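quick one
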Amino acid sequence: MILTIDPVRLGSALALSGGYLAMCAAIWRARASARRSVSTGTADWLVVHATQTGSAEYLAERTAETMRTGGLSARAACMSELDAGALGSATRVLFIVSTYGEGDAPDSGARFAAQTMGTTPNLSHLHYAVLALGDSSYTNYCGFGRALDGWLAAHGATPLFDRIEVDRGNGDALAEWQHHVGRLAGTSDAPDWEAPGYGDWRIASRVLMNPGSAGAPLYRLGLVPLDGALPDWEAGDLAQVSAPLDPDHPREYSIASLPGEGELALMVRRQRREDGSLGAASGWLCDHAMETDVIKLRVRAHGRFRLNGNAARPLIAIGNGSGLAGLRALIKSRIDAGKGDNWLLFGERNAAHDYLCREELQGWLAASRLAQLDLAFSRDQSTPRYVQHLVREHAQVLRSWVEEGAAIYVCGSLQGMAGGVHEALVEVLGAERVEAMTLEGRYRRDVY
Ligand SMILES: Cc1cc2nc3c(=O)[nH]c(=O)nc-3n(C[C@H](O)[C@H](O)[C@H](O)COP(=O)(O)O)c2cc1C
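structure w/ flavin mononucleotide:
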């Protein structure tokens, strides 16, 4: 993926009521675990994160570690676990939140933003600070962090220090946060928060995946470290590439392969800016970099899009375009573990040019490594057909997979696809079930 700085049949009334009870139980379990994990915690300090691609979670873990180094009891918690009740009993909370969409909360903060922030609690008992992650090239820079800070202050909470805004991982801003946290913890002996350095890689192979496409060219790059030793990563993780022309602004791509395959594979769409020039990173990776050039790359764990607790669950993988990268790695990982209950719903433009990984997918289907493969090629008929249409067309099968415990993973475009798929899932499964699946970590998205 490209980043500029994340889902058989109901035949009878019995099955229906069973499904309803299962849904209620799932919601209850998810909510009970949320209440348990936040309100009965004994930590003096809560470090709450709302993240899409993991930066805020990473920083929350580091922050809680620093507090503990100073002898305080502190723990990191996801904002999806925090409700008005938990906030009513907490006295010291550090918030680390990113911003998506048009100044919106990331998925894990969406419920808090929509529900809790719509209430008017008395927060005069609460001391807090906000670290807002964002990218100043967006109109609503740090929009969610600012809105959260404003809401907390407006309801009587006392800031420990001014909100700190982090533009594209800016080191000075992070150092300022670390300084404040160290002071609160009474320690300057803070663990190192530096992101791991870039490694030296080279391009071992570069193949155009969509010759003749009406869209921009999409390349499959096979990368290997210069010293030959592949780092470890899991399906769902990301690779950050620093482009020579714009080294301070790493681009993130979903990793399409697994270490066992001997190379780190990316699917990179060559971007053109409005003035016709090539994107700094995609142009470098797709056009300019030679096999002899050093590619500065590092792997970033993306816990929210890993299989984690979902490894044994049937997998519904939904996406479009270069989003196939992340989905391919997840499916491959399950295939390697001997699991064939994988269902891919994928959309692109034209079957003739954009049927990415055609041979591999058809081979997996023939070998029952993929249980089902559904494709929507938007431009192959007069009325556009997208992957969200597939979700609606296969509503009954989808409900039945979910009844059997399936997890839903969505990867691809935020514009159009992610929202369209989400709406279709809400239509097919119901809003409560989608929310419960989000809380349980059974509905995960890596959209960009
Ligand atoms: C699709 C997309 C939309 C974004 N929208 C905004 C935005 O409106 N405002 C902003 O400040 N940052 C925006 N960002 C930048 C993220 O907030 C920033 O990269 C942040 O560091 C990500 O942190 P996380 O890994 O914890 O989710 C956006 C990033 C992406 C990929």
